[in-house]
Design a protein that fits this description.
mainly alpha; two-stranded antiparallel sheet; about 5% strand; rod-shaped
Length: about 100
């Protein structure tokens, strides 16, 4: 247990950047598929309860892809930092 706490209680460097790049790269294939389906008129982009097709829909997808990756990154980073804080408190209490 001591090795586990010591190994994972250090604050990571560059975690936010790593998470953002990972989520952004993971979301790109889905965004490209959605763009292709949107341009062909199969799946719309719903904006203000209005279906949008074509280049305007593709533009919305391109603009919202980094935003979605950023929201995922912030959420996961907060959870990670809470867990890291808990491990550092355990380290101070028991080691």
């Amino acid at each position: 247990m001591k090795k586990l706490i010591e190994k994972y209680s250090t604050k990571p460097i560059g975690l936010f950047k790593t998470l953002f790049i990972t989520f952004f790269a993971g979301y790109i294939p889905f965004a490209l598929i959605h763009i292709a389906l949107n341009l062909s008129g199969v799946i719309p982009v719903n904006f203000n309860d209005k279906p949008i097709y074509g280049f305007q829909g593709a533009l919305f997808i391109l603009l919202y892809t980094p935003l979605v990756a950023l929201l995922f990154t912030i959420t996961i980073w907060i959870y990670f930092m809470i867990g890291n804080l808990f491990l550092r408190l355990l380290k101070k209490l028991f080691l």
